[in-house]
Design a protein that fits this description.
single chain, 254 residues, alpha/beta, two-stranded antiparallel sheet, 11 helices, 38% helix, 14% strand, globular
Length: 254
């Protein structure tokens, strides 16, 4: 699958590996833009719309082996031999899945607020309900959509995040497939150990990376380090971008 991407060349001459930025569920390539704007100083940057999101193609298949293949196809398309991959949430799992498919193509790996585990929990049913309510109401503007969504969602930040994908009265993600394939998105199939330094950046207030997942994480990423961002929830990079960028830059410099 040929994903929709935004490619930017580094502002300064460098010999650093390119960075691929991978968003999470209900997101788009704009979501990690706050990281791209900093890292493009000395890295070529590729931001991707994942399948069934943004302007990328639609598919009935939505699992991590398929998403990892999409990322590998993107590297090939841009003639990138090795890259640093940074993913948030679902995007972090897609990046981790790539280590099983093409371990030699990854220079460094950063997973933001996600662990390589099957969560066995539905955290997004209210979001699906809000999205479907907007669709059923047939509204055309983001303002109208926001009013409807606030009946379902308490966090204004989540409403604003979702609205970024509401364009001309339509959602830019494939709602039926995301609902149908949701068990695959929160799920996980254990992968072989990738024995290279990897950075995990959990939010201190988030339930996504906890001590309970430590053994599973280290079995698959034995050289993993964690940098917990205190006072942040699941949207770590949006809530504390400076702290996240400091952690990433320290890791890239190692």
């Amino acid at each position: 699958m040929k994903l929709n991407v935004r490619a930017q060349s580094a502002q300064n001459l460098h010999n650093n590996s390119p960075i691929v930025l991978v968003h999470g569920l209900f997101g788009s390539l704009d979501n990690l833009g706050i990281l791209a704007r900093d890292l493009v100083a000395d890295h070529d940057i590729i931001q991707v719309d994942m399948r069934n999101h943004g302007l990328s193609p639609r598919s009935e298949e939505m699992n991590y082996p398929a998403m990892a293949q999409d990322l590998l196809d993107t590297l090939d398309e841009h003639n990138i031999e090795t890259a640093t991959l940074i993913g948030h949430s679902m995007g972090g799992k897609a990046v981790m899945a790539l280590t099983a498919l093409a371990p030699d193509r990854i220079d460094k790996l950063v997973a933001i607020d996600i662990a390589p585990v099957d969560y066995h929990v539905r955290r997004h049913d209210e979001i699906f309900a809000a999205i479907n309510a907007v669709t059923n109401a047939g509204v055309a503007t983001r303002q109208q959509a926001a009013t409807i969504m606030r009946e379902f969602l308490k966090e204004e930040g989540v409403v604003q995040f979702l609205l970024k994908s509401f364009v001309d009265g339509a959602w830019r993600f494939n709602v039926p497939v995301l609902w149908e394939q949701y068990p695959h998105i929160v799920g996980w199939e254990t992968i072989p150990a990738w024995d290279h330094p990897a950075l995990f950046i959990p939010g201190g207030n988030s339930p996504y990376v906890t001590e309970a997942y430590r053994d599973s994480l280290l079995a698959q990423f034995p050289q993993a380090k964690a940098h917990v961002i205190a006072g942040a929830g699941h949207w770590v990079h949006a809530e504390k971008p400076d702290a996240v960028l400091r952690a990433i830059r320290r890791y890239l410099a190692e």
